[in-house]
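My main concern about presentation is that the manuscript never shows what a single data entry looks like. Each protein is reduced to its one-letter sequence and a matching series of backbone shape codes. For the editor and my fellow referees, an illustration may be useful. For illustration, here is how one protein appears when written out as sequence plus structure tokens:
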Amino acid sequence: MFTFRPLRRVLSSAALAAVPLLAATACGGGSASGGTEVVAGHYPMAWLSEQVGGEGVTVRTLARPGAEPHDVELTPRQIADIGRADLVVYIKGLQPAVDKAVGERAADRALDAASAVRTLPLPDTDGHEHDRDHDHERGASYDPHLWLDPSRMAALATALGERLAKADPAGAAGYRANAEATAERLTALDEEFQAGLRGCKQRTMVTAHAAFGYLADRYGLRQIPIAGIDPAGEPSPGRLAELTGQVRRTGVTTVFTETLVSPKVAQTLAREAGVRTATLDPVEGLAEGSGDDYLSLMRKNLQTLRTALECP
């Protein structure tokens, strides 16, 4: 018995014109309060920045709670925040608007998380080139969902500690100590997943979109995504019929829905295939009022997977 351990849019010209007014006094980076200011692209990067940065760091998140982060629209104030931040932590290829703003305003003060870990190629949606072409159009040449592998997050914690130490040498020892402690917690989480997903009867996950490639790669699972890396994509009737056949052939018992996107397509697939649904959280953001964090959401995912995959 296993036991757990405790729709892309372009910013208007009027909005872009307003940015210099907000950023005019903040061109060189730094916080008005004198602390280290970090801007994070979305929740997992914000969580990691808070853990590694500790009390000496102020973290702003560009994707608001309850919102799907892939197609985030930046306000002029957020673009100004990027321009004055001591460090921007993001994943290139995940949020095109963030990529653009970082390239224009913070290229020398940014940590692209994908540069700190081994990335995976864009997922193969079983020969359906439309999804891959759409993902390439977004600027993605690899799967950006790296935070769903705790071991990669542990490596990223170490890299983030070094970048914060460079940005704020006076706090270097604290950042490195926090990074080490955070990496240890993430390594423990990784070990929980390895133990919890050992010996499962099923090894196939049918997911709402291709967010779980890193998790599958780390723990020896197979991901069959309904949509590509962008959850806004919807399968054609022909693709849905193929997916229904795959679910039936593989003996999958569960189609996974998500928290921040509509479950309708996944529910339709489950109904057609005669299986149940369950929620598997891609941890792209927190729901409004949520009391969870990255670690608790990942542990909930582990419990969900153990049930769906019929693990001992």
Observations:
- Residues 4-33, 127-137 have pLDDT under 50 and may be disordered.
